[in-house]
Amino acid sequence: MASTTLICDTQPWKDLKAHTEDIKKTHLRDLMNDKERCEWMMVEFDGMFLDYSRQCATLETMDKLYKLAEAASLKQQINRMYGGEHINSTENRSVLHVALRAPRDVVINSDGKNVVPDVWNVLDKIKDFSEKVRNGSWVGATGKPLKDVIAIGIGGSFLGPLFVHTALQTDPEAVEFAKGRQLRFLANVDPIDVARNIAGLNPETTLVVVVSKTFTTAETMLNARTLREWISSALGPSAVAKHMVAVSTNLTLVEKFGIDPNNAFAFWDWVGGRYSVCSAVGVLPLSLQYGFSIVEKFLKGASSIDEHFRSAPFEKNIPVLLGLLSVWNVSFLGYPARAILPYSQALEKFAPHIQQVSMESNGKGVSIDGVPLPYEAGEIDFGEPGTNGQHSFYQLIHQGRVIPCDFIGIVKSQQPVYLKGEVVSNHDELMSNFFAQPDALAYGKTAEQLLKENVSQHLIPHKTFSGNRPSLSLLLPSLNAYNIGQLLASYEHRVAVEGFVWGINSFDQWGVELGKSLATRVRKQLNASRTKSEPVEGFNFSTTTLLTRYLQASSDIPAEPPTLLPRI
């Protein structure tokens, strides 16, 4: 494609647009009767099993999607990413989160340099440090072991590590390694988040990990200064060097803050925040909690999918198939949302993480060359574990708007329960719903079926299900550290595939900047009003009214308040 050519101007896009009229005449009730089609729409790799037969698509649809991928130079784009080319053109950066989990002997270049040795230098440093903390050879200022960790970070420095931590918390192997330890994540600048994080913790046994690439992120640094005060007020200022470490590249500011630069763990500008869970951002706090050996298995799971994504043919490539089907649903069938529905409580933080990975990456209105997009791109992602979601928003999914669904199931529960006399185990009860819901969405229930069941005439419209609602099912053999890595990488690469096809930059995030810059003005105004009683000026009528009301209602706060920390 020429640099200014949009994918919608290509023949494969136009062919798919025309093809949607054929698909609108089909129904999943009929498509699911075609056994050969269903068999073609099942793919297995490294224990993961994908069934996308309940997508509103035929084999002809898939052929047309592969042609679209070819028109978008998808294979070349993937190779450019793995080759370290600066595909994040607006920031002139490589995109190499795959290097974060590459084996030691792999060569991945950025700007002519193999970055894998640098990655492993940091991983080795994390392994050494985390083992010292865990075995008690690194202790706090008063000589007590550091058994509690608070990781401070926001966005990608928080959501990804929290997802992995939550998923590992009930894995039997990880549980053994985490005995006697706690890991908490402080993200929101809301003081309530500080209060919740330090509640019940003793500064003497707490290690704080400050995650900020530049060491200037406003929310993160205010929270870091707050916990520095919490430690200093209890143990003295000199304790900071023993109780705080950093994940950052700005060693000057790290040292100025009071943290020993030797206790700063690096990452690189070719790692986007939302893709950084496999860097020190996630690996350090997770290794402190579970030990490096568990986290290394997580990295190996992700690396397995990285190689699969790079080398497998598109028709057998799980991330490519997921990405192409998302493009089909969003840009051709007109379904802008996607529900992520893991039938595992351990994955309760998966949807919030993918929400950022997907929506921050692909929430763009212009092409990578700055041309306004005349088609819809990006998905609205949300989700909740099954069966909780069934009792929350499935009503809309079944009888309201059409929302394509990802059902994620686990064959073996992390924590099985069997009760004598019960028809099925607890996990089988959960999985009964995992298998039933996609069919309910696909087939629905007709008025004729309801009549045969002697349903009252006036209730038939209310109890009719239209069906023909697309979903896919992803089945994992278990949910250990390796599987969690596989799942993460599959969704990361899915997002990249969508962006490559849409012709957008999935690796910048300029949309988060404007609100932050406006907040700087508000911050200055609040300071001037609090300390000098200056009136609110320079804002529109609405904002002026809200700010004035806020200041008046909180006028009991002194102009120069003394230090005050939460007292839960």
From TrEMBL:
Keywords annotated in UniProt: Cytoplasm, Gluconeogenesis, Glycolysis, Isomerase
Reactions that this protein is recorded to catalyse: alpha-D-glucose 6-phosphate = beta-D-fructose 6-phosphate
Subcellular location: Cytoplasm
Highest rank taxon of the organism: Eukaryota
Pfam families: PGI (PF00342)
Family annotation (Gene3D superfamilies): 1.10.1390.10, Glucose-6-phosphate isomerase like protein, domain 1 (3.40.50.10490)
Pathway: Carbohydrate degradation; glycolysis; D-glyceraldehyde 3-phosphate and glycerone phosphate from D-glucose: step 2/4
Residue ranges the record marks as coiled coil: none
EC number of the protein: 5.3.1.9
Key word Transcription regulation present: no
GO biological process, one term: gluconeogenesis
Top-level class of the enzyme under EC nomenclature: isomerase
GO CC terms in record: cytosol
One Gene Ontology term of the molecular function aspect: glucose-6-phosphate isomerase activity
Keyword Isomerase: yes
Family membership: Belongs to the GPI family.
NCBIfam families the UniProt entry points to: PRK00179.1
Subunit structure and binding partners: Homodimer.
Record protein name field: Glucose-6-phosphate isomerase
